[in-house]
Amino acid sequence: MTMTFKEKVLKIVSRIPEGKVLTYKQVAEKAGSPNAARAVGSFMKANYDRNIPCHRVIRSDGAIGHYNRGGRNAKIALLKKEGAIE
C-alpha cells in the first residue's frame, strides 16, 4: 500500500533525532514533493501527537517559526534543551 504525502511527512518528522532539525522544505523534499513546504507546515500546525516532534522542523531561513503547543518561545526552549540551537 502506498503512503500518502502526509503519512510520509509524519514518518520523516518522527525520525528527526533529538538535537537535530530539518526545514519544512527538507521534509517536503524527503517526502517526494519538494515544492510542498507549506503543506508540511500545515501538517505540523495541526499535529498534537507527542510522538511526532514537530518542534524540530524550522523555516528555511533559519527562523524558528510557530509552534502549536505553547508558541514560538516554547519551541525555542525545547530546541535549546535538546541542543539543537544555542
List keywords for this structure.
single chain; 86 residues; mainly alpha; Arc Repressor Mutant, subunit A; two-stranded parallel sheet; 4 helices
Summarize it.
With 86 residues, the protein is mainly alpha-helical.
CATH topology: the name is Arc Repressor Mutant, subunit A
Structural class: mainly alpha
CATH architecture field = Orthogonal Bundle
The largest pleated sheet is described as:
2 strands, parallel
Question: Helix segment count?
Answer: 4
Describe the structure.
The chain has 86 residues and is mainly alpha-helical. It has one domain (5-82): Arc Repressor Mutant, subunit A, CATH 1.10.10.10. It is 44% helix and 5% strand. It has a two-stranded parallel sheet with strand order 1-2. Helix 2 (24-30) packs across helix 3 (37-45). It is globular. The termini are far apart. The relative contact order is 0.19.
What's the SSE blueprint?
Elements: H1 5-14, E1 22-23, H2 24-30, H3 37-45, E2 57-58, H4 71-82
Parallel strand pairs: 1-2
